[in-house]
């Protein structure tokens, strides 16, 4: 599957290019205890993004780009 088929793969590759960024994003985008992302949309919309949020999912792919191998 290419990044054209899976846009998240391209984003994950860009995140992975910055040392420490995947781990930082994973540490910041955590469950608030109510299955909501603690970091996404602070303010008036805080708590409206279900966890794991998209950023957490893509950062997870960036941290482990080849989980099979």
Into which percentage range does the β-strand content fall?
A: under 5%
Arithmetic mean of pLDDT? 85
Class inferred from helices and paired strands: mainly alpha
Integer-rounded radius of gyration? 13 Å
* Overall number of domains: 1
H-E string:
HHH
Which outline best applies?
A: globular
Q: So what's the oligomer here? A: single chain
| Major beta-sheet overview | none
- List the uncertain runs: none
Number of strands: 0
SS element count, helices: 3
Describe this structure in words.
This protein is mainly α. It has one domain (7-63). It is 41% helix and 0% strand. It has three helices and no strands. The chain has helices at residues 7-16, 21-28, 54-63. Helix 1 packs across helix 3 and helix 2 (21-28) packs antiparallel against helix 3 (54-63). It is globular and about 35 Å long. It starts with 6 loop residues before the first helix and ends in a 6-residue tail after the last helix. The model has no long low-confidence stretch (mean pLDDT 85).
List the helices and strands and how they pair.
Blueprint: H1 7-16, H2 21-28, H3 54-63
Features:
69 residues; mainly alpha; 41% helix; globular
Write a brief structural summary.
This protein has 69 residues and is an all-alpha fold. The chain has helices at 7-16, 21-28, 54-63.
């Amino acid at each position: 599957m290419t990044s054209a088929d899976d846009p998240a793969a391209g984003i994950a590759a860009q995140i992975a290019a910055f040392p420490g960024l995947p781990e930082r994003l994973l540490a910041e985008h955590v469950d608030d205890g109510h299955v909501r992302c603690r970091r996404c949309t602070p303010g008036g919309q805080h708590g409206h993004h279900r966890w794991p949020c998209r950023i957490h999912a893509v950062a997870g792919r960036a941290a482990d780009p080849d989980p099979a191998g």
